[in-house]
Give the backbone structure.
Amino acid sequence: MTEQHRASTRFDGWLREGSAVAALVMREHLEPVEGKDAIIFPPTYAKPERVRDEDWPGYNIDRFENGTNVCLIDSVGSQANRMEPIFKRERYRDLVPQVLIRAGEKEVNLLDAGHRAGDAIARFAGTMEGETGAEAKSLSERLWEAFQAWQLWGDAEPLARIAPTSLVFGAWDSRATQAKVPRVVRSVIRAYNVQRCTRSAQFNTPLHYVDEGLLDESLDKGEGEKNPLSQEGFRHSPAAGAHGGVQVFGEIRREVAVNLVALRTLGVRTREGEDAAAREERVFRLRRYILGLALVAVMQRDDQLFNLREGCLLRVCAPACWRAVPFEGEAEDIELDAEAVLAFASKTAQEFGVERLAKPFLFEKDKANRWLKLSKDARDKHRRKGPVLKQEF
């Protein structure tokens, strides 16, 4: 076995059917850049219908009977959306296809689409710019076929060819094939034992517009935001009891898991005349490639990774430790080096073969508009038949 081959097969023990290792996990301890006792701002969420206004803190804080609580700082979906765009960067862009969709005057990278391969912009993306003829295939059709291959035969190779990060971070083709692709990478940030804070503010106008005769007194009526002067910034405006962040008395922790069980479900469909050994090699090339992308995603260090929102800039305050967790028995500490992981990902991407797309796919706005004019029942009927761009309606 050559040194180069060993470099790409070093993790094959985790990728084989029957492997005892369930996942690779890492806990990363964080703190605010202002210091451990600083107040940070979690994301705010809409109030559930069953909760009274006065009972809703705005933040996702779960309280337990023993008096402790846990506050969500960055969700699984939000973490995925922070990690995925790194593959647009010069250092990582050759690891995945750069799928661009031209919509009007704008170009959207599929890496920025919230639903990944299942996003609406991809579902109505036609052929590549300049492509014509019967052999030209729309992005919509390619993704439909890829999701179908996964759903019907467990064949993840077509999706890996066009949208591999949908295998890394998961996808649900909820408005077409209904195929669900499980996440390989799961990352979330939580804070433990927090105290909610409030803040108040006072806006003062530079002058009193009514007293100065600049605005009619008859217009100055109503309280708060019901007053047209307040609505347009012509009136003093106090704000009391607004969301003021949380102070953390426990720890802030990022928990990362690379789900090797999900990774081992990724298979390929046997080709005509293909023997078992050749098929197995294709399976391993696929799994190595997706593992490489997953490890790069969770190990990269980016100045935006912990800049979560205004008032919530975090830093790593203690070294992280990776562990290989078996289904039974003790977890084992493992060493993963970011540069070595990138070298592994580059090698496995080269062996798998990353498609280079020269031009963007074109968003079919006329088709999208006609689609939206259909009734919901009609859309549901059509969406089960195949790629929407191949249908007449």
